[in-house]
Amino acid sequence: MRVNKKESPSSQVKKWFRKLNIEHIKYVPDELSRFKSDVINMRAFLITLMYNTTTGA
User: Fold this and answer.
1) Cα(first)–Cα(last) distance of the chain, in Å?
2) What is the pTM of this model?
3) How deeply is 37 buried, as exposed, middle or buried, from its count of CB atoms within 10 A (0-12, 13-18, 19+)?
4) Which pLDDT score, from 0 to 100, does residue 55 have?
5) What is the mean pLDDT of the chain?
6) pLDDT tens-digit profile of 29-55?
7) SS3 track for the chain
8) For residue 17, what is the enclosing H or E element?
9) Measuring CA to CA, which residue among 36, 22, 31 is closest to residue 49?
């Protein structure tokens, strides 16, 4: 899977998503509201955003 502009094994991506908790989920709408430009690929944007919440990037 491609996450954060890098190829990652799907098992690693699943591991990242298992780490998500309610605070990570609450972070996503806050970040979306601050993002000013149009998002062309919303799916990729959300996956990267959620990935970044678990890695602290």
Assistant:
1) 18
2) 0.66
3) exposed
4) 64
5) 82
6) 888 888 777 888 888 888 888 888 776
7) CEECCEECCHHHHHHHHHCCCHHHHHHHHHHHHHCCCCCCCHHHHHHHHHHHHHHCC
8) helix 10-18
9) 31
* Residues sharing a CB contact under 8 Å with residue 57, sequence separation 6 or more, in sequence order: 4, 51
Residue 2's identity, in one-letter code, is R
Domain positions in the chain:
2-55
How many helices (H) and strands (E) the chain has is answered by 3, 2
CB 49 within 8 A of CB 35: no
pLDDT band at 28 (very low <50, low <70, confident <90, very high): confident
Amino acid making up residue 17: F
Cα 46 from Cα 42, distance rounded (Å): 6
